[in-house]
Structures are given as C-alpha cells and as structure tokens.
DNA sequence: CTGAAAGCGCTTACAG
DNA sequence: CTGAAAGCGCTTACAG
C-alpha cells in the first residue's frame, strides 16, 4: 500500500479507517463529516473504527481536496496591551465548537505588516476573516476584495454601513467622556492619548467636538504621543502636562493604563484626585476598580465584540445573515476619580 | 487544464509560474524554496514569474506533499495574564524569518484542554512544539512521545535534564524571595499565591524551605487560592490575611498583580508599606515600577525564554544542537516596597 | 543542474 | 444511500 513509501506520515489514514469499518473511503469521509446521507449504522461503525485507530483528519489533505481551509483568521494590532485578548478568547469560544481553527495574526499596529499577514493567511484559504477597524493599505483592501473571503470588522463601526462590523462608536465614546467631565464641573480639559491608532484618534474627535460646542476647547491641553500606551507613559505625560498647564482640572486618557500612571504620579506630586483634577480612563481594564482613588472609566464591550463578530461571521458563512453593523455601545463606570 | 474544474482554488499555481518562467514545475518549486542546485538565472526567472503572478505557495499542498507542516505549535496556559505574551512575541520574531508559521494554543491552565490541543495540532504535522512546563496528562505525554516531534519546554527547567528546556528555577526564585525578605529584617512571612500552577507551587516550596531553615516558617501565613491572579484578588487576600494575622511583616506574592492589589488595599487601610509590611512581587510586570510605593519584584526573563526556546528548537531541527537545559535566571529588582 | 512520474490523504462531482 | 474515478497543488525519490 501507500504506507511503504517514506512519504507517508505514519499516522492512520481515512482509507485505513474505511477498511476497518468495511466501507469505502468516501463513505468514511462522509460519516466523519456528518454528511446526512449516510446510514446511521455505518456512521457508528466508522466512528468506532476511527476512535480505535486514533484517527485524526489530515487538515492539509482536507484543505487541498476541498479547496477550502477550515480556519478563520483573526488579525489584531497588538497582543501586549490586553485589549485584544478578550475578543480573541470569545472568538475561540464561538468558533472552536464549530470545528473552525482560529489563526491569530498580530501586526503590531503596522499596516504594512497587516498587509503581509493578509497575503500570507489568504494562502490558507480561510473560511472567514475577522479584522480590526478599517484602516489599512490599499493593497490590503484589494487583496481582501479579490479574495472574496467573508469578513467582519471589529471595534469600529463601518461609516458606510456596507461592510459587516461589530463594535461601538469611538466618536460617541469620546463625546460621552467630555460630557461627563463637563457635568462634573470641569472646564479646563485635556485629552491624553498614546499609540494614536484610528480609534484613539476618533475618540479624540468626539471629545473635542463636545468641548468646542461648550466653548472650552483648548488644543494646547491635548497630548498625543505615538508611543505605546503604558502606566509609565501616563505618569510622565501627566507630570509634564501639569508643569506646563497647572490650571488643568480634568483629563481624559485614551486607555486605562495611562490613567493609572497619572493616578500614581498625582499621588507622588501630592495632587488630590479628583478634588483638583478629574481623571477619566478608557476601557475599564482589570485593576482600574482597585486603584487609589478608584478609576472612573468607560467600559468597552470587548468580549461581546469578539463573540458577536464571530457569530455574525458564522451567519454569513451559512448564508443565514446579511452584512450588518452591530453597535454594542459602551458604559461609563463612575467610581472615584472624576 | 486543471483550471477548468470548479475544484481549483482560482489562485495561480506553481505550474503556471513554471510555464511563465519556461521551466518545469519541479524546478520552479526548487527555485522558490531556495534549493541550492538550481541555476541562478533560472532562480531569478522563476522568482520574477512568481512575483508577476502574485504566486503564494499553497500551504496545504506543500504540507501534504512533504508530509511536513511548516508550523511550530506553541502551547501556553493563558493569554490573559500577560505573562505569556512576551515569550510569544519573541518566538514569532525568531521563527517567522525562517518561514515557520506559529500556531498558538491556549489551554486555560487545563491539562485536559492541553491534551486536546496536542492531539489536534499534531494533525498539522508541525515541525516543532514549544510547551509550557512539564505538568500534563499521561495521554498527552504519550502523544508527544509517539509523535516524535521535536519540542522545547519553557518556563521550567527539566529536573531530569533529558528534555530540552529553557527557563529558570522557580524553586530558586522562591528561595531568593525569602532570603530578601529575611535580609530586610522581616520575620513573620507569608506567601500569597493564586492560580496555583506548578510554577507558583514550586516558588512556594523554595520560599518555605528558606523560612524553615531560618526557623520562622508558619504555614498559617500562607494563602493559596486557586482562582486566577488579579489585582482585585490581591487586595482581598491582603485584607483578609491582615485581619487574621495582624503581626505579619512581610509578604511574597506569586504575581505582581496580586502585589499591586495589596499595595492599593494597604493604602486604603492606612498601613505603611514597607514600614509595617514588606511587599515583594513576582514577574516585574509593566506598571510595577510606578506603583506607590514602587514595587520590589523579581524580574523574570520572559522574552528571553521565548527567544532562546525558539532558537534551541531551530537548532534541534537543523541537527545543530543537542537537547539541553538552559537556565536564564531571574533578577530581584529592589525598589521601595520591601 | 533539470525533469517525468508518482504520490501525499483527502473530497468533489458523477454514477447507480 | 454508497462507491470508483479523478483531482486538489505541491514535493519526493529516481533518472539522466
């Protein structure tokens, strides 16, 4: 048989399972895949044979024969800031039970790296794609369109509404932040952002718009730093901003780690939060509920985004659902720092 | 040609590249893979043809034909506690340039889930495996041994020294923690651990051993909680322990997030750190350098573990290196909390 | 240094 | 409901 040549993998094949079960390989294949048309008795016979031999489908052979991978590719801009871990876990939970492998690509906030990942992963003929936001190279856009692979975008809402997306309005979140600070009686407000991805920028837009409408927008109070977000950076930016503009009385941080750093630094500087300055975070990261003072933040539906995006993709694959735009909203969690 | 049938993937194939370049598919294959024996002129011709057509190798076909995947599987117990992100990134950096795909499996600290992942991923015929620690089911052990796939274990050192491993001695780290606290003049010491994976347990052993030798080990001062590690849990455990044993004067936490929680809670309780209680963390997570007071912690070589493990695996694949045990050590970072 | 033949382990039409 | 034939797109020996 085939097993003689050194090219065989050594693992049991479908043909061997079929032999044991006394059926043809095609029937064995159908039985294992749960194709309806197989006699129940044969199904159990095949399943037993497979179990006995410890048979596991060779994914390469399956993908080659069916011209379809059994994977869904998820592309995220980062793994290190914890933000994308929760969607990732939720995606796994939805997709794994359906027999779909989840391939994770991290492009480190670099559109060129994302384009490479898209090119590479498309070779795997994935069933679907889960992407972050809408900001990518033209080449990447073309690759995606040409591939025809169903996809859902996460974290941002499609402005046009034509591409399936699951997330919330970053702009509205920024606006809500400004309104909350204004409602707390603060007047001299700044936005402190790092990384400066499209979402942080959109929140800044929303924030500014409200301030402008309230007649208290001061561009010199904004701090936009392209460096990765971190506790240390938050502390540094807080100190610098305060030295420069001691009259500031409210700060919106684009991520909780920055805000936590500001809280630490304020304590070192002897600046009372929120008495002298209100501090508002974003994302409500683990730990923010326990800082001193407890951080007021905007909770984002990260796990829900992953879950819904995966579910929507599944619907698209089955032809059950239409491309839609799912707005999951956000929630301001009021604690002690504003 | 083949392209007529609906079974084709629609993407350009090696054969088409070969046609364009005026060579046989085999030569095209060799040229693209960088097999030495191809005439330089043909190599460039093939590469140009491939570029022109936008050819990307079909990984399924390649894996099937070569009875070898081009992936390395990395299995980690968690993604959410940030600990395993750095090794993962480092592994990517080493393996991707070599054309190896990195498949990530997260088993959520569940050996049964790890066993399933091993079974599944082995079907991909990975070139190598990167595993976390040595604690797994017997079935998993057998699968690994039977597969013959080269592997390197991370984070712990192989006690026997026969299996390749890269990490540091968890036991020694625990002992170092105890010595540091003792050297600071503390006598009433406890170990606060969560998750209770084998590594946290090993650190506890090392910690206890030193205390015992110093004649001040008190088992009732240890807090071992199987829940996931978090800032909130650290705060809770700190408060409870303090209510129960107000005389405690030094605490070693199995992870920095717990220690950070304790710092917050101490502040709320008005307990001076380190004057009344020394707090020692573990892992030196981002943020720990900025807490109030700044957290003294034990820095672990997480990125280096990933980098070295991947490098060692590469050596194993090339037959360049022998299985060895690489001890990367750890470093106590003295700040303000002890 | 290059190539014709065969095969990797599945699944897709096509029959019956 | 079941199966024989062909094919997915590569690479492995084997020649020359």
From TrEMBL, chains A, B:
Record's keyword terms, sorted: DNA-binding, Transcription, Transcription regulation
GO MF, any single term: DNA binding
Residue ranges of every copy of the HTH lacI-type domain listed in the record: 12-66
UniProt entry tagged with the keyword DNA damage: no
SUPFAM superfamilies found in the cross-reference section: lambda repressor-like DNA-binding domains, Periplasmic binding protein-like I
Pfam family membership, one: LacI
Keyword flag Transcription: yes
Domain of life: Bacteria
Record InterPro entries: HTH_LacI, LacI/GalR-like_sensor, Lambda_DNA-bd_dom_sf, Peripla_BP_I
Name listed for the protein in its UniProt record: LacI family DNA-binding transcriptional regulator
Species assigned in the record: Pseudomonas flavocrustae
Organism phylogeny: Bacteria, Pseudomonadati, Pseudomonadota, Gammaproteobacteria, Pseudomonadales
